[in-house]
Design goal:
The protein is of the alpha+beta class. It is built from 16 helices and 16 strands. Among the domains are: 59 residues; 192 residues, Ribonuclease H-like superfamily/Ribonuclease H (Nucleotidyltransferase, domain 5), CATH 3.30.420.10; 60 residues, no CATH class. Strands 10, 11, 12, 13, 14 and 16 form a 6-stranded mixed beta sheet that branches. Strand 1 and strand 2 form a beta hairpin. The longest helix has 23 residues.
Length: 530
């Protein structure tokens, strides 16, 4: 039978349909189809296959070829069927991305804006910055965004109301921020709870396998614990903080006069006194004024003064001195007005002083530890004692009384003393009565604690050299004559605000603050020495 030359035969209809479907899947399917079609041409007649039937959302293409099968394919499936199923598995996916919960942030919230205040004690920019920080921390533990904003606004308002200046506001704001961060749930603890891994300490890692089977012992010193610093143990520790003789002289503490009994001497530089005894210099505004023989002003002249101290601050081109009370420049007219001029007078008449004396003690007793603070008012003589408070180591008031001064009062100095006319109306206690009580309570070895205690001893007219002065214990960075205020020391070290009462200072509050500061200092130093 004569052989016929092979001629191209048109592809049957079903194969064309399959070819279009494979081309729609991917380029790789085109190559597979080309291989299957070109390799399967033969002069034999083509046997059409059944058309593909839909099987749901996906179509399964049946295998068909022009070349008869010479045997079963590996795996029991034809080549085209395995190729189509492989491509379908690569082009179809059932993995859905995980949904991430949205956590509210400050950018997505409508931030409250603090209104600008002209001449405010704290710049609005600083207040707004801390308000934003408060909101961020409150969002971590509050149940709703509105609750977080309200709590942050309340915390910022409290910090602003309790701060008389920018420096105090920054301290209070930082403390508030630390408090809010402590309320937020810890991220480290949450991670350790969610992850099922066992937490291994650093000591176990360094110790190796034998760390769990090995015991160690540390020899501790026999000194008392920090919590046990009371009574005789605290007294022995406080001896390290007593002022030396040079420090007592340098800070203006009174010493017994070598020639006059009952007199005192101060080793600091004496102030310039006017030649005329009837001419005095106002200790508030620096104006010279005339007084009569009774000490009253000859002329009714108002006193304009600044109650705040001068503070130097860096400005463009150098330094500028401003008053802390009103931020006015040095030399400006005072921001406060008083009815008349006054003087200090405590360092001018150093007479009528008493000195603490030695006392015998029992075997295990100690001379005692007390904190002391006094309040003074202006009289025709000068500054005189009007209140005294003594507290013990447990900050319990053991002596507190108002004192009637020997001379007539011309200014109660209520802003700083807290003493009013009503407080002294029914008071009959004199300075001599107070001296008698203190000499019975104290001995020469009793440790007295106070802030600038030389001022209180001058008002009490008491000579005592066993003292711990917080203004020396926490010195100013510029040294004398600069001293840090008790209010700033409490805010910086103990994170407490004192002297924020509009009615004036309280001697019991100041004495307790001094005791807290000294005990805190002793305990912190004891921790570092362990």
């Amino acid at each position: 039978m004569p052989l016929r030359s092979a001629s191209p035969t048109p592809l049957p209809g079903p194969l064309c349909v399959e070819m279009h479907m494979l081309l729609a899947l991917s380029g790789r399917g085109c190559l597979v189809l080309h291989h299957a079609v070109t390799g399967g041409r033969s002069p034999c007649a083509h046997t059409p296959c059944a058309p593909p039937a839909p099987t749901g959302p996906k179509r399964t293409l049946s295998a068909s070829g022009s070349q008869p099968s010479n045997g079963p394919e590996p795996g029991g499936q034809p080549l085209k069927t395995r190729t189509l199923s492989g491509m379908a598995s690569k082009t179809t996916t059932t993995i859905t991305p995980k949904r991430i919960a949205h956590s509210p942030s400050l950018q997505s919230l409508k931030k409250p804006i603090i209104p600008k205040e002209f001449g405010g004690k704290v710049p609005t920019v600083i207040r707004q910055r801390y308000l934003n920080l408060f909101i961020e921390e409150c969002l971590k533990f509050c149940t709703s965004n509105q609750e977080a904003i309200e709590k942050a606004l309340n915390e910022e308002k409290v910090a602003y109301d309790r701060s008389p200046s920018k420096g105090i506001y920054l301290n209070v704001a930082v403390n508030t921020l630390k408090k809010l961060r402590g309320l937020a749930p810890s991220a480290v603890s949450s991670l350790s709870k969610t992850s099922g891994r066992r937490v291994v300490s650093h000591e176990v890692v360094l110790g190796g396998r034998l760390a769990a089977k090995t015991s160690f012992s540390l020899s501790r010193p026999s000194s008392p614990r920090v919590e046990d610093l009371k009574g005789a143990a605290l007294y022995s520790r406080l001896k390290e903080y007593l002022l030396t003789q040079d420090q007592l002289k340098e800070n203006g503490y009174p010493f017994p006069h070598p020639e006059r009994p009952g007199g005192a001497v101060i080793f600091t530089a004496e102030e310039k006194r006017p030649k005329d005894s009837s001419c005095r210099t106002c200790c508030r505004c620096g104006t010279e004024y005339l007084v009569s023989s009774s000490g009253r002003c000859v002329r009714d002249e108002e006193c304009y003064y600044h109650w705040g101290r001068l503070r130097r601050s860096r400005v463009a081109g150098g330094w500028e001195a401003q008053y802390m009370c009103c931020s006015a420049a040095a030399g400006s007219v005072g921001c406060q007005v008083a009815k008349q001029h006054v003087q200090d007078g405590r360092k001018e008449r150093l007479e009528g002083f008493v000195k603490t004396f030695e006392k015998e003690l029992s075997g295990d007793a100690h001379p005692g530890i007390y904190a002391l603070d006094c309040e003074m008012s202006y009289t025709t003589y000068g500054l005189e004692l009007t209140r005294v408070t003594v507290v013990d180591t447990d900050v319990h008031v053991v002596y507190d009384t108002f004192v009637k001064p020997d001379n007539a009062i011309v200014d109660y100095n209520t802003r700083f003393s807290g003493v009013t006319e009503a407080d002294l109306a029914d008071t009959s206690v004199t300075l001599r009565d107070v001296q008698a009580v203190l000499l019975s309570m104290f001995s020469a070895d009793t440790i007295l604690i106070g802030h600038s205690l030389e001022s209180d001893l001058l008002a009490l007219k008491v000579i005592h050299s066993t003292v711990v002065d917080t203004s020396v214990l926490f010195p100013h960075r510029l040294g004398l004559p600069y001293k840090r205020s008790l209010r700033n020391l409490m805010a910086d070290y103990l994170r407490q605000i004192i002297q924020d009462n509009v009615d004036g200072h309280s001697s019991s509050e100041d004495a307790g603050a001094c005791m807290h500061l000294v005990i805190w200092k002793v305990r912190e130093d004891a921790k570092s020495k362990r």
